[in-house]
Amino acid sequence: MSQSLAAAKALWIEVGDGVDDKSLTGKSSFAAALIQCPRYMYLYCLPHICLPIQVFSSNKVLSALQCVIRCPCKEAQRFSDMYMKPIVNAILDQQVDRNEKDTNKTIAAILRTSIDIATKELTNPCKTKKCSTLEALGSIFDKKKAYYGDSESSGNPQVRVDMIMRFGHSSHKGFHHLATRIAQRPSEFTNMDTLHFLLLATIDASFVFSLDEAPRRISRATMDHLLGEDDLTKYPTQYLYLVRHDLQRLCKKLSLSTPQLMSEFNQFWRSLTLKLIKSESQEHKLFGLKEIEYLIDACRLPEAYIVKGAGYEFVNGRYEISPLVISNGCVSAQTFTYERTSDCGKKLVLQPCLMTEPGKSHCDVWFYLSSSTTGVDYYFHETNPNEEQAVPLRRWKCIGGSKHPPPTLEQSSNTIPFKDEKGNLEKQLNKWAVENDVYGIILGRCIDESHLRASAFLRNFLSKMNTPNLTSEQLALSNSLGQGASVLESILPLLTSTGPTISSQSQPIQPIPSSSASSYLTAIEAAKQRLLSAQRWKESMESALQGYLDASRELQAARSSLLELERNHGIIDVDADDEDEAPQAKRSKTNKS
Questions:
Q1: DSSP label at 418?
Q2: How far is CA 548 from CA 370, 527, 543, in A?
Q3: Terminus-to-terminus CA distance in the chain, angstroms?
Q4: What b-and-e string marks burial along 292-327, b requiring 16 or more CB atoms within 10 Å of the CB?
Q5: Residues whose CB falls within 8 Å of the CB of residue 511, separated by 6 or more in sequence, listed in order
Q6: CA distance linking residue 511 with residue 482, whole number of Å
Q7: Half-sphere exposure of residue 477, counting CA atoms within 13 Å on the CB side?
Q8: How many CA atoms lie within 13 A of 328 on its CB side?
Q9: pLDDT surpassing 60 at residue 506
Q10: Contact 279, 233 (CB under 8 A)
Q11: Cβ–Cβ under 8 Å, residues 382 and 371
């Protein structure tokens, strides 16, 4: 045992030194050292220039990782902590032809072993430090890695699917352990990029096989983690968007068996957006305003789509949303279908379909125009997962043998609201906006013109929801809209007191009847114009103010320099209190004059 442990330690040192040796690999640490070649491989260090270098055997790297599992000790932990992520990235950042069977076999073994190490570390209850293999696990699940490829003709996308299956297998229960880890130690999941990849793997796994409660626990733990963060500004907005979108996709899929999960997500989404628009970061405020637009869009579906320009004339026409998914005037299902009967009597459908073909590196939802009676597909759209919430309007394609050209689509202006377990989503969003004075927060915290333009989307939504023909419920909600006036009253006096340009042209704020939503929105529009005028006036004064401050600093520096010289040469003996008092007296006199 001692001999095998000694051999393992020597192997870890050797492979670790290879990873650390920048002289072999230039900028990409160990990037070329894991793809098996007879003795040499080419490292492209400059355009059109390649150098042959001797590399470590990938079998030796595999042995080093296997020893981490067989010989647990602090040296093994140090090796996996420091080198598993670089090793995984070195493999996956390379393109390897799928016909290189021996190479791909070794690479798959390295990735499987890395999965085993990460799973073991996730299950260690005594571990007090950060789980160091999470980022390596995220890299294995990153479907955009070069090794996996992005087409059926190149790359090895099935390897990623195999790794997800291994992680979720009953013998590993990786997703269950991941859910526990996120819930118990959310501070370890501050890398939103890694969290994004872990959520994508959870989504793909939930499409392929049953994971019991693991995906639900992961989604709930992640939502609690984000809402529990005191400072969201430490996370880049692009990754916050990806994680939020991943949660939306996951909860939408899981809501087929757990409907209340979609309600939980919608509530989480609104709470997260409220935190963002209250942020001190301009970038995160704007992101929050954009999220409000997404929230509004997610509340409703177009009533119909018009298909035009298809080679098959009978496919063209108006497709109405299926009455089977409508309940009490709302779309009650997360999966929706649009239907049409052509003039020749053909029944057609416009619907999303889940794609889980073998060899795909992930599961996507595509849209199809098909016959509802024969099942024949005429046209399809390879939908980007980031856009699958809405029916695509452009870039449709013909099914093999279908008549060209493919169609384009238009959506009707009329919409039908979605509903979840808590009811109409439009009414829920309106209630949230009113009770939290969201529009007042936007105007109270954001006086930049771009913020005000972005807020118009919310204003139009509130205007539509709070019409003069209010129900008793909406009337009670609209009474709270008067809160926005208090926000404006607190910020506008500060602007009007800055100079006569604004105050001489402005009228005092008139009381706004809290029961009148339309009056409130009219007053808000006028206040917005006032804010813009104040902003322009402030900007015109900035250069003059800056010049004054620069001159004041120079005057103080010159005075201090003169006093210091005179003191050093014995010309005057200025007491410290007198030195402070004299300039202050001068400033007071200047201010009075």
A1: B
A2: 72, 31, 9
A3: 91
A4: bebbbebbbbbebbbbeebebebbbbebebbeebbe
A5: 485
A6: 9
A7: 22
A8: 7
A9: no
A10: yes
A11: no
Summarize the confidence of residues 421-430 as an average pLDDT.
Answer: 92
If one counts every other C-beta atom within 10 angstroms of the C-beta of residue 208, the result is: 13
pTM above 0.70, yes or no: yes
Residue in 175, 180, 155, 154 with CA at minimum distance from that of residue 164: 175
pLDDT score of 537:
66
Rg (C-alpha) for the chain, rounded Å, is 32
Give residues with Cβ within 8 angstroms of 332, minimum separation 6: 325, 326, 419
Q: What is the tally of helices (H) and strands (E) in the chain?
A: 21, 16
In whole numbers, what is the pLDDT of the chain averaged over residues?
76
Overall average pLDDT of the 509-514 stretch: 44
Q: Give yes or no for a contact between 349 and 338, defined as CB atoms under 8 angstroms apart.
A: yes
CA distance 87 to 65: 10
The predicted-structure confidence for 227-258, as pLDDT tens digits, reads as follows 999 899 999 999 999 999 999 989 988 887 88
> Distances in Å between the alpha carbon of 169 and those of 119, 162, 176, 490?
11, 10, 10, 58
Instruction: Give the tokens for residue 309.
Output: 């320009």
Write the secondary structure of 331-351 as one string of H (helix), E (strand) and C (coil). Answer: ECCCCCCEEEECCCCCEEEEE
Q: Helix axis angle, 101-122 relative to 157-168, nearest 10°?
A: 30
Q: Does the pLDDT of residue 317 top 80, yes or no?
A: yes
For residue 562, give the H/E element and its range.
helix 517-568
pLDDT tens-digit map of 369-403:
999 888 899 999 987 665 556 788 888 999 888 89
Token output for 192: 């939103």
